[in-house]
């Protein structure tokens, strides 16, 4: 038992070091934004896919925003991927098609496998351009965003691009404010540090882009995946394509406003991520492919992020058991420090990361909410562990995964 | 004190201590003093002319004064609603108001404008026609509807825009955004950060590049999607023709006269020898050295440093492009169509 606990502490320490490393890099290291200065070019033709499943509350906003972006109109085609919607999504899309002839080509999907990856896969039949950008329907791209997301594709090594997601409905309640802090840490520090250190920035599946030839090379969208973005990140990596993160390519999104929706969302992410871990973990770390050593290590750690929740819970249980059994767990001051830090929060470095991100964003007052983040942390750790358990059970019983769309909270556009 | 009371007191005290860090959090949650979404610029796409365009709108309120002074030849002074003092000049020979070596007011005119040497202009300048600046001047910002000519050793601190051609004398320092709707010509030892124009020439006047033949003129490239990935260093031999995109994980050397029908990426250093021609983009993870008389059609990006030798041209008259690196040195006789952006320092150096 004690050796299992030692291993868990070691794992926690590795992740702690990783978080601190990323944060210190963002605060003091060389910052890579190689493509952000490309403001003049012979811009490539591209297609913007807008994934929409029952999105009548939000679809008009994104289509309106896309019509005003600064990108040559003759080089940008918008394909709203209306995936089996049963609300007014289709009618709204068709209104835009009439208003902007030639600029929007709708893809109305009435059947087939559920899920975003499956919908995108089907929509690829009508995509003709080499560059494809992807947005979820609740996003609001700014005027310069399309150019910023297209720019990295001038680099022939780049297969995927990811922009930064910024919550719009921050002031709704405690949850949205906590999610705002989490997003800040995840993008401003985590993603950018991985970009700086030439590690594995993660494709987020929205505010993102992919090169069609790269997608074709890796076998297209994986409709079996619950998180097509994570799946895409790793398949690109294994085939020698890079995902570029553009921290200054920011786009507003709507975050969940109720804990129920949030729990559902994070459970889906956890299941998808764990699915990718099982599929690509060993191959990434030990297989023969084009990823560098640092990408192998970072990619593996990234794959294990959601698995750390049940591991941490197990660690807490074991620590208590060890204590009540009177087993001296470790010796010396280091052991005491390890256990104290570990037992207190599991991994405090994530909080340090978020604090640094908020400072980098220049919004330091919201850092006062940091102690409340423990609530979000506890909810996440139990939800993710629950997802892992249910996934294990599904794997044993052979039950199929099913895809849950995240509920929207925006008022219907008038 | 009874032991029960002592335990209760201790419990309350510890609870209070534990709750203490939550007080600012709960107050912030209640007050929402920092609950706005992070500011994301939705409408401004980072255009280089953004400040110039804003200033053009700002200066519109001086239009009656500008017209009156232009027709009467008389100067006018006043204060704008934001408290900025201004002087509208009646003609090009009107004296500039100074206090010591500094001009403290916004200067505007609908005619040509000439400034004497050795002056620091603390406010922005607007010239309805051409602008000619004396040497050793310091400017905050200049907008001219005609050509702008900056004297040697001039410094521009924030931005500059010329609707006509911009000529920059030797040893000038151009900080911030500098743009022209026609052309930018830079003399040696000029330093710059962000430049944009249909063409930017680091010129010997007799060989400004404007008259040199454009190797890409009239050609339409169909970009290749094929890619070759090479681990380690790689060399493209002299006069070799490559018809693919090439990604090299080490250093890349492109031999003299080689032609690449695609884009090139080196994760480390990249060297182009003379007369190399690339129809796509050039991306280097570290340093890039572009030899003399090369031609590159697409964006040129180096993550650390870039050196461009004389006779090289980037982009074409029909298709502008971006040349960018944190540190850039450009020899005289280089021609760039579009944007030249040195994130930290850019310099024009004498031809070796």
- How is the quaternary structure best described? heterodimer
Question: Count the helices of chain B. How many?
Answer: 4
Strand sequence of the main sheet of chain A, in spatial order?
3-2-1-4-7-6-8-5
Q: What level of helicity do the residues of chain A show?
A: 40-55%
Q: Please state the overall shape of chain A, judged from the principal axes of the Cα atoms.
A: globular
End-to-end Cα distance of chain A, whole Å, is 61 Å
Shape of chain B: flat
Largest inter-chain interface? A-B, 51 and 57 residues
Annotation field: number of helices of chain A = 14
> β content of chain B, as a range?
35-45%
Could you name the ranges of chain B where pLDDT drops below 50 across 5 or more consecutive residues? none
Residues in helix, % of chain B: 10-25%
Biggest β-sheet of chain B, characterized?
30 strands, mixed
Reported for the largest beta sheet of chain A, the result is:
8 strands, mixed
Radius of gyration of chain A: 22 Å
- Would you count the extended β strands of chain B for me? 32
Structural class of chain A: alpha/beta
Proportion in β-strands of chain A: 5-15%
Separation of termini of chain B? 91 Å
Give unreliable regions of chain A as ranges: none
Rounded to an integer in angstroms, the radius of gyration calculated over CA atoms of chain B is 28 Å
Care to describe what's here?
The complex is a heterodimer of chains A (414) and B (352). Chain A has an 8-stranded mixed beta sheet, sandwiched between helices. In chain A, helix 1 (2-28) crosses helix 11 and helix 1 runs parallel beside helix 13. Helix content of chain A is 50%, strand content 13%. In chain A, strand 1 (46-52), helix 2 and strand 2 (76-83) form a beta-alpha-beta unit. Chain A is globular, with a radius of gyration of 22 Å. Chain A has helices at 2-28, 59-66, 89-99, 116-123, 145-150, 174-196, 212-217, 228-238, 259-286, 293-303, 308-324, 332-345, 349-360, 373-397; strands at 46-52, 76-83, 107-109, 131-136, 140-141, 158-167, 208-211, 242-253. Chain A is built from 14 helices and 8 strands. Chain B has 352 residues and is mainly beta. Helices cover 13% and strands 41% of the residues of chain B. Chain B has helices at residues 3-19, 22-31, 50-59, 63-72, and strands spanning 76-79, 85-89, 102-103, 106-109, 113-115, 120-121, 125-127, 131-133, 138-144, 148-150, 155-162, 165-168, 173-180, 183-186, 191-202, 227-230, 234-236, 241-242, 245-248, 252-254, 259-260, 264-266, 270-272, 277-278, 282-284, 287-290, 295-296, 300-302, 305-308, 313-314, 321-331, 334-349. In chain B, the strands form 2 sheets. Chain B has a 30-stranded mixed beta sheet that branches. Chain B has a two-stranded parallel ribbon with strand order 3-6. Chain B is flat, with a radius of gyration of 28 Å. The N and C termini of chain B lie far apart (91 Å). The interface between A and B is large, with 51 and 57 residues.
């Amino acid at each position: 038992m004690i050796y299992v606990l030692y291993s868990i502490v070691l794992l926690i320490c590795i992740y702690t070091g990783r978080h601190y490393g990323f944060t210190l890099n963002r605060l003091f290291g060389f910052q890579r934004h190689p493509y952000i200065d490309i403001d003049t070019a012979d811009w490539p033709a591209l297609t913007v896919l807008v994934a929409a499943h029952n999105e009548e509350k939000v679809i008009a906003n994104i289509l309106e925003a896309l019509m005003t972006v600064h990108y040559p109109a003759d080089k940008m085609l918008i394909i709203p991927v209306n995936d089996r919607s049963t609300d007014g999504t289709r009618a709204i899309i068709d209104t835009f098609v009439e208003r902007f002839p030639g600029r929007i080509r709708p893809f109305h999907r009435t059947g087939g496998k559920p899920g975003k990856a499956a919908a995108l896969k089907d929509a690829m039949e009508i995509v003709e351009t080499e560059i494809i950008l992807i947005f979820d329907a609740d996003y609001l791209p700014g005027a310069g965003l399309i150019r910023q997301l297209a720019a990295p594709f001038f680099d022939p090594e780049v297969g995927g691009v990811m922009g930064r997601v910024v919550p719009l409905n921050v002031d709704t309640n405690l949850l949205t404010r906590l999610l705002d802090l989490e997003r800040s840490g995840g993008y401003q520090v985590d993603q950018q540090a991985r970009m700086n250190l030439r590690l594995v920035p993660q494709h987020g599946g929205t505010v993102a882009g992919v090169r069609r030839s790269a997608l074709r090379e890796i076998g297209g969208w994986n409709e079996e995946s619950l998180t097509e973005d994570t799946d895409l990140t790793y398949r690109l990596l294994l085939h020698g394509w890079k995902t570029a993160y553009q921290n200054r390519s920011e786009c507003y999104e709507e975050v969940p406003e109720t804990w129920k929706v949030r729990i559902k969302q994070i459970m889906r992410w956890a299941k998808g991520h764990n699915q990718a871990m099982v599929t690509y973990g060993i191959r990434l770390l030990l297989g023969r492919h084009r990823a560098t050593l640092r990408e192998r290590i970072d990619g593996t750690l990234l794959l294990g992020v959601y698995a750390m929740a049940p591991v941490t819970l197990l660690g807490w249980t074991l620590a208590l058991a060890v204590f009540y059994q009177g087993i001296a767990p470790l010796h010396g001051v280091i052991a005491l420090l390890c256990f104290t830090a570990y037992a207190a929060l599991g991994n405090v470095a994530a909080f340090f990361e978020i604090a640094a991100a908020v400072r980098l964003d220049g919004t330091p007052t919201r850092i006062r909410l940091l102690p409340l983040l423990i609530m979000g942390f506890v909810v996440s750790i139990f939800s993710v562990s629950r997802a892992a358990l249910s996934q294990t059970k599904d794997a044993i019983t052979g039950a199929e995964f099913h895809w849950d769309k995240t509920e929207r909270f925006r008022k219907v556009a008038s | 004190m009874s032991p029960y009371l002592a335990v209760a007191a201790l419990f309350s005290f510890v609870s209070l201590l534990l709750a203490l860090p939550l007080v600012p959090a709960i107050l912030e949650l209640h007050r929402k003093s920092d609950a706005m979404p992070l500011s994301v610029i939705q409408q401004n796409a980072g255009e280089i002319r953004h400040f110039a365009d804003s200033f053009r709108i700002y200066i519109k309120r001086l239009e009656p004064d500008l017209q009156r002074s232009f027709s009467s030849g008389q100067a006018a002074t006043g204060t704008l609603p934001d408290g900025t003092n201004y002087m509208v000049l009646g003609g090009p020979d009107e004296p500039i108001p100074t206090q010591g070596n500094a001009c403290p007011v916004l200067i505007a005119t609908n005619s040509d404008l000439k400034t004497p040497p050795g002056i620091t202009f603390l406010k922005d300048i607007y010239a309805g026609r051409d602008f000619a600046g004396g040497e050793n001047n310091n400017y905050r910002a200049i907008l001219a509807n005609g050509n702008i000519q900056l004297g040697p050793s001039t410094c521009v601190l924030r931005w500059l825009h010329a609707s006509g051609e911009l000529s920059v004398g030797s040893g000038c320092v151009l900080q911030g955004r500098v743009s022209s709707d026609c052309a930018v010509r830079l003399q040696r030892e000029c330093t710059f950060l962000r430049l944009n124009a249909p063409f930017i020439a680091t010129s010997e006047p007799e060989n400004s590049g404007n008259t040199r033949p454009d190797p890409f003129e009239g050609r339409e490239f169909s970009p290749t999607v094929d890619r070759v990935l090479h681990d380690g260093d790689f060399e493209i031999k002299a006069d070799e023709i490559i018809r693919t995109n090439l990604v090299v994980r080490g250093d890349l050397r492109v031999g003299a006269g080689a032609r690449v029908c695609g884009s090139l990426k080196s994760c480390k250093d990249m060297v182009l020898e003379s007369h190399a021609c690339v129809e796509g983009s050039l991306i280097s993870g570290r340093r890039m050295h572009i030899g003399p008389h090369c031609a590159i059609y697409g964006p040129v990006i180096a993550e650390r440093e870039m050196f461009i030798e004389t006779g090289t041209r980037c982009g074409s008259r029909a298709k502008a492009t971006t040349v960018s690196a944190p540190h850039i040195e450009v020899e005289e006789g280089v021609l760039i169509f579009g944007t030249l952006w040195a994130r930290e320092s850019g310099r024009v150096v004498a031809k070796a």
